[in-house]
Structure formats: structure tokens, C-alpha cells
Amino acid sequence: MENSNDAELLSAFQDYAREINTFRLRIGCILGFTLVPLFSLLDYYAVPHHFKTFLLIRLVSSALTLLLFLFTFTSFGKSHITWVGALTAILIGGTIALMTRYLGGYESPYYAGLNLVMLAISMLFAWDVRITAAICLSMYTLYIVPIFLYDQIERAEILINNNAFLISTMVIGLTSAYFISRLRYQEFESRYKMEESRKALEVSNQKLRELSYLKGQFFADISHELRTPLAVIRGEAEVTLRGKEKPVAEYKRVLHYIILLADQLNKLVSDLLFLARSESGVLHMEKREISLQEIIREASREGEILAMRKGIMLTLKESAEDELFLQGDPQRLKQLFLIVIDNAINYSKMGGDVELSLEREEGRGKITIADHGVGIPKEAIPHVFERFYRVEKTKSMANGTGLGLPIAKWIAEAHEGKITIDSEMGAGTRVTVHLPLSEKVKV
């Protein structure tokens, strides 16, 4: 992860440096194609006998610099801005080196122009110091090689003096470039990390706001879920007490209804306690070796009762030939499967069907619960395992508080397994649970 972050930081810095170099190269080009011709005024007073020749050289150099300036606005130029910058610097340095040839080579005072160019590229651009060194050495080569090839050095002290200043300028410029480059990178790194921290805080704040909103919705739903059955129980009891005597069957109906509502309240309270205990770490699994088939069959039998009420066909298909065993808590695993089966039935249409299947897959038990109900919107799938979350479009189809799937996920992960959901609106939902099997059945 650290290497990945370093690579992202380096890539971001390179993009930043490219933007700086593009802008500064354009400024450098503007200075180049204006100052180079303006220095012809110096030629006019210092070397009037070379004025016309130098003016032509300067105008050609200025025109080429202008072309390079325009080239920086092309997509190719932007993507190769370092090469364009190097070529621009070498062009101006080469122009100065060429003029020194007309003025006595190693004796020419025009070598001082190279000092200016070397210092400019060392200070101005956000290049790697090695690139700056290569450009400075290229310009120095254009100056020094013709001297050794063509000049007869009669006054070595002038050669030594001029080269001492050139080499010193290079060393000072490159040293400055190195420290400026380091400082620039450190400043960028600080800003980059601050921006990353700001973004992370923004994401955290957004999540906290969402959590606060979901908790508010949750407590509103819980309040409704608690008050509704209590109000109905109280209402039924009051009507029964105050009304005239009714047939035994009517009393039984009322009592059955009260029991049903009491069961709903009990389930709600149980879910809340489960989540509270799982968060505090006091909920422990009583694991032992159990048959996965037996757990699935039990859950299927209990699910059939609810399915029959809605006229839904619940079928179980087992493709594993031998018995599948795992280390697990039978009560919690059955709870997991019943949560998913209950959801599949509740969100299926009357007369629909729900299919359970069990198979072995790479040393793991694979349990699939598929329905052909309303489905889940694609954008909601990443959130269905979040506590308190309920799919907005399906809220009216079934009672619930958004606690079931988070509980199912916790149980699956407590058994070193996982639970996934694949769904499509109008086509149904497929929930898959993978659980690790005991070693003896993996062969």
C-alpha cells in the first residue's frame, strides 16, 4: 500500500512539474525571442563590425525560439515538454557559442551569455537535476569543443579564467537546482498529503452524516415498529374487554393476532440485542462440527411455513453427494439462512417461488437462495449490508428495519465465510453464502 501511495504521489508530482515547466518554458521562450534580438544593441556598440552578421544570427535564433513557443501549445509539445525545453535552452546557448567563434573563440567575452542561460534553466524549470546537468553540459560542449578543434591557444590564462567562471556557474546552478528541486518536491508532498487528508476527512464526515441520517431513520422506523403492534395489541384487548361476549373462535383469532404481534416485537428486540452484543464483542459462537445439510433442511422447513402463507413454492436442491461438515454454531447459521429466506419470501410476489441450493465448491459449502421477486436497484446493492439501510423502492412491500442482512453478514464472517448479493430490478435476487468446510471433507 505504501509503494502504491508513493507511486501516486510521484505521478501527481510529475504532472505538477509538467504544468510548471510548460508555463515557465513559454515565459522563457518569450524572453528568448525578445531579449536575444535586443542584445543586438550591445553588438552595435561593442562589435559594430559584426553587427549585421550577429543580427542575422539573433533573428534566426529568435524565429526558431518563437516556433518552439508555438509548439508548446500542441498536444505533442505538451507531452514532450522536457525535450522542447531542452532544445530551446540548447538553441539559445548554441547561438551564444556561435557568436563567440566570430570574436576570437576562447578570448571572446560573449561566453558570459552562457552563464546567464545556465543560471536561468537551473532556477526557472522544475526539471530533474540530471536533465539540467545534461543541458548545461551540452551547451558547454558547443562552446569548448570548437575551441580545442580550431583555436590556437596563445593566452591560456584567458581560457582558464573564462572556463573557471563557466564551470563555477554550472556547479552553482546545479547545486541550486538540486536543493530547489528537493524543496519543491517536499512542498508538493506536504500539500498533496494535506489535500489527501482533507479528502479523507471529507469522506469520513460524509459517512458520519449518512450514518447520523440512517440512525435517525432507524430510530423513526423502530419507533413505528414498536408503537404499531403495541397500539394494535392494546386496541384489540380493549375492544375485547369492553365489547359484548363473542364466540370462542373470535377470541382465538384476537389471541393469535396478539401472539403474532408479540413475536414481531420479540424479533425486533432480539435483532437489536444481537447487534449490540456483536458490536461490544460479547457475542460468542458456540462452534462444533455440524452437518451443513441438516442446517439447510431445518431452515428450509421453517421457511416453508411463511412461504405457504403467501402461496410461494420453496424448494431445496442438494447437489453434494456426501455429507458436508463444518465447524459452526448451528443456531446462528440457521438464523443466517432464515434471514435470507425470509427476505426472499417477503419480496416475492404471491404465487412465486424461492429456490435453495447447496453444493460443494473448492473446499467450501456454497448455499444459494434465489427468488424471482422485485429485485434490488444496482446502486443500492453496495449498501444492503449496512446497518439501518433499507431499499427505498421496496420499503412498502415488507416490514423491516434494515438489520437482517447486516446480522447475516456478521454471522457468515464469524464463520470465516462470506455472503454476496446479485440482483436485478424486476428479475429477482440471488444471495450466495460461502462457508469453509471441515478438513476431512475437503478431499
TrEMBL record:
It catalyses: ATP + protein L-histidine = ADP + protein N-phospho-L-histidine. GO terms for biological process: cellular response to phosphate starvation. Pfam families: HATPase_c (PF02518), HisKA (PF00512). Residues 221-439 form the Histidine kinase domain. Its EC number is 2.7.13.3. InterPro entries: BphY/WalK/GraS-like (IPR050351), HATPase_C_sf (IPR036890), HATPase_dom (IPR003594), His_kinase_dom (IPR005467), HisK_dim/P_dom (IPR003661), HisK_dim/P_sf (IPR036097), Sig_transdc_His_kin-like_C (IPR004358). The chain crosses the membrane at residues 27-47, 53-71, 83-104, 110-127, 134-153, 165-185. One of its GO terms (molecular function) is phosphoprotein phosphatase activity. It comes from the Bacteria. GO terms for cellular component: plasma membrane. Keywords: Kinase, Membrane, Phosphoprotein, Transferase, Transmembrane, Transmembrane helix, Two-component regulatory system. This is histidine kinase. It comes from Candidatus Manganitrophus noduliformans.
